[in-house]
Design brief:
The chain is of the alpha+beta class. It has helices spanning 2-24, 32-49, 60-85, 96-120, 126-148, 153-181, 184-199, 208-230, 236-264, 364-375; strands spanning 87-89, 202-204, 269-273, 288-293, 305-310, 313-325, 328-334, 351-359. The strands form two sheets. A six-stranded antiparallel sheet has the order 3-4-8-5-6-7. The protein has a two-stranded antiparallel ribbon with strand order 1-2.
Amino acid sequence: MKNDRARVYSLEFVLVLFLLLALFVPNILESRLIIAVFLGLYAVVTKYFIKRKSKFSIFQKKEFLLMILMAVIYLVIFYMFGMYVGFKTAAVRFSFVNIFKYILPVAVIIIATEFIRSRFLTEKTKISMALAFVCGVLIDLIVYTNVYQLQSLNSFLVVLGYVFFASCSTNLLYNYISSRYGMKSIIAYKLITTLYVYIIPVSPDLYIFFTSFMRMIYPYLIYIILENLFSKVRKENAILYDKKSGIFNGVLVVIMILIVMLVSCKFLYGVLVIGSSSMKGAINKGDALIFRQYREDDKLAVGDVLVFQKEDVKIVHRLVDIENINGELRFFTKGDRNKEMDDGYIVKSDILGVAKLRIKYIGYPTLYLRKMFEKE
């Protein structure tokens, strides 16, 4: 027993270390094909060294059908949103060449990842489950960073928001399912919800954070359904634990909703990290500023702190004067620490919003990342 557990831990640690190296050192795993080959070989190694012991739920077949249904519902919801926001042409067209270039490598990655996970979870310990979770998240990050290439701060934040948080949510679900029902339903679910982008010629033109949000909350919905349909009756203390867990997860979902709404700037309020000292005192460098979206009929007054865009740069300065020239309102701004007013003026179309709340210091990590990418 101890030898089996030691083999599982050793293989997990080796995989985690290699994946971390591949993630942060460029050109180690530079294509999906190489990732697929590596994971395929590692799956063979795990099959040879780790014996399968898991006994799965009697509801395994029903759970498999349910996961296929949930995958189809996911796509239906996704494309229903497209009826409101519109569609865009798929980045990769379905063709014979792209089957070998994209579809087969991604399919192999999915199958190999879940096979490896299932072997790791034969030892149902907290360490083994935690390492299996980390491996799943790292594999997702490697696959997607290969797409985004991390060439800028924006691409880094996209990967962080779109891949990391969503991957944490999905891999928690996959660990839960793999340990109870096996890997087949996960593979089917992932194939359906991943490969459609290479097969269907159009996809909804959704803002990326909306897609990320859906990928974060949908696994939790699946978990609730599985628990209610197939779990055995629990004792009172277990039920109490579930209630506490449900409250915690509910609060977490609300927080994620707020973060997505603020970062996307597609709703009434948005968030911006201050990167200069021109407003020092009122708003300092490294602060996060929450602003209300500006609308044409909003009334502005001298003293308001505006968020506006000038020459593709977002600026946060105070409104110091308003002039009406031939029916056109012209707004003059100035940084509190600046001696002179800003050059020229802005008009309504330049204004993004009006500052409402400052949160001190929490923007420093973003500024640090920006400097890191600027150095590169």
